[in-house]
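Budget justification note: compute hours in this period were largely spent on complex prediction jobs such as the one shown. Inputs:
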Amino acid sequence: MSPREESSLAIKVETLSKAYRIGESRTKQDTLTASFLRFLSYPFRQFRAIGKLNTYSSAESQSNTIWALKGVSFEVKKGDVIGIIGHNGAGKSTLLKILSRITDPTEGCVQINGRVASLLEVGTGFHPELTGRENVFLNGTILGMRKSEVSRKLDEIIEFSGCAQLIDTPLKRYSSGMKVRLAFSVAAHLNPEILIIDEVLAVGDLEFQRKCIEKMNSVASNGRTVLFVSHNLSLVKSLCHRSIILERGRASSLLETEAAITQFMRSLQANKMEDVHDSEFIKKVRVKVSDAPKRDIYTGDCVDIELELMIPKDAKSFSIVGGVMNHYNTKIFTIGMSLDPKLGEHSIGGDRTAVCQIENFNVSSGRYRIALVLSVDNQDVERLENAHFFDVHESNFHRCRVSEPPGVVQCRQSWKIV
Amino acid sequence: MSKTTIIQPPKRFISLVSWSELWAYRDLLMFLTWRDIKARYAQSVLGIGWAVIQPLFQMLVFTLVLGKMAGIPSDGAPYAIFAFVGLLPWTFFANALTGSSGSLIANAGMLNKIYFPRLVMPLSATIAKMMDFVIASLILIFLLIFYQKLPSIYVLYAPLLILILFMTAVGIGCFLTALAIQYRDIQYAMGFGVQLAMYASPVVYSSTLVPLEWRGLYAMNPMVGVIEGFRSIFLNTIEFPLTWVLQGFVVSVILFICGILFFASRERVFADVA
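Corresponding output:
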């Protein structure tokens, strides 16, 4: 690689691996003598076990080591905003800990060009007995700021946190929300070249969350390099240009965030495409386009959602409420009907088919699921969270292709220039 | 030009301390020390007064039990002030060891969440105890006035004695801190270990009670030079023990360097073993 390319890199990770030792399973002693000897040798075994906590030798049996990361390589250019997504235990936190120098890798190498600040937690080092102001200084210096730097930004930090009134009160008198706000304010005023953030945004009330996201956006758009780990996929999507998927310690290549999320969701739901079968009252759910059952439909299609129901014989009324969720688990719209014949004696029980016709299925591409609740005589009798899965694909719904992400729903639109 | 950081698996057993990095984090050292002091005495009636009470009451008890009842000789000085001059540096030393060895464990949450030179932790705990030492020294001044004692010319050696005291505390403190984060036994052993060590130092008795042929070995304990040095300065008990002080100085430098090197070589695994 030429020196010029090299200098445009912020982070270069090469075949990074990290092994952790896990507890050995204990063998049980079945004689009194053996138990007693084991009891006597306990300190020696314990001494060896504790001493080995942090070591790894390839010669040893591999049974009690797990690889939190294995052969992870990627490069981040200066000014890139990169998302890291993955399941719990995929190695996200371990990766961030290595990048922020909290723990050492077992193998591999990382090269970081620039001043790094990492936020794996907000409010590190906060002490309940100190005042808000003192904690701002303490936390700021822990995060690597100089005292003069904190002093300079102090007013701004206090203003942003909205805790100005209580700033000289001990932190233990703060509500937990206020603590978090103060903590985030300090973090938000860091000015590093490279910022490493773990899920710290799920804090505070809605108003404050909005402020945080705005701040993040401004950091991201200021040409700084950001590495962002979150379970909140829509946040990753809105903040990050490109993303990496971690799965059981292995990393994908850098993908466009949109593609990464789709791929991640597919792996998440690969075994979940199966609809619920053993249901009692809702026998089958189908999505049909022009009378043919489909798993793959296109934005703007005319869609029938068909439900085969078994209504109890003596039922006098029933209703269906449900929703269509996208892969962020956001409900896109509600579907529902209720049948209440008001005839009293006339039963509506038996096998029924309910069809919900949707004229223009104007949702964007992605995987969707239908969740349903069936009530009979005002009693919920069945609730299916994963009644049916289907995929929606992009059609040429829009006349012009815009480069922006399409949004959750798409409205048919016509333009006039006057 | 931005700085480049390389992160790699640890290669050598011994690693060196990055003083420039420690210097860059000097503000953190200051605020952590401040946090230690302030948090310790927050919401207490006597506040920093507690720094005085510990050596003062120990002095009273020792004077009563050892001075009056057992009649331990005190090289011609009143036993109360004789004991206090010993207790003053010893209290600092004992508290510094306990404080620094517990500092990493108490802040294990921080270790796992953020990078900073770990040395800041035991250092700030030790410096915070230095504050108590300074406050308790005021009592010494009162006692000196009360007993009408004038320090000798050897008072010029006082800064050296304090340096020996500090380096010994930091050296042993770092060693114990690095061990304690991995082996919690250290914490449990601290309480009585420190107490035992007190009897290996001339805190409540005079070094002149130690048999002559053992004194050379005895003075390998840097606290011997420090305590007897202070006594000679303020109480004129014995000739200023220059050999003991120099011997203690050499030992304290060795302890200081070894302690910090040991700490630095273990530093990188703290987050994994905490």
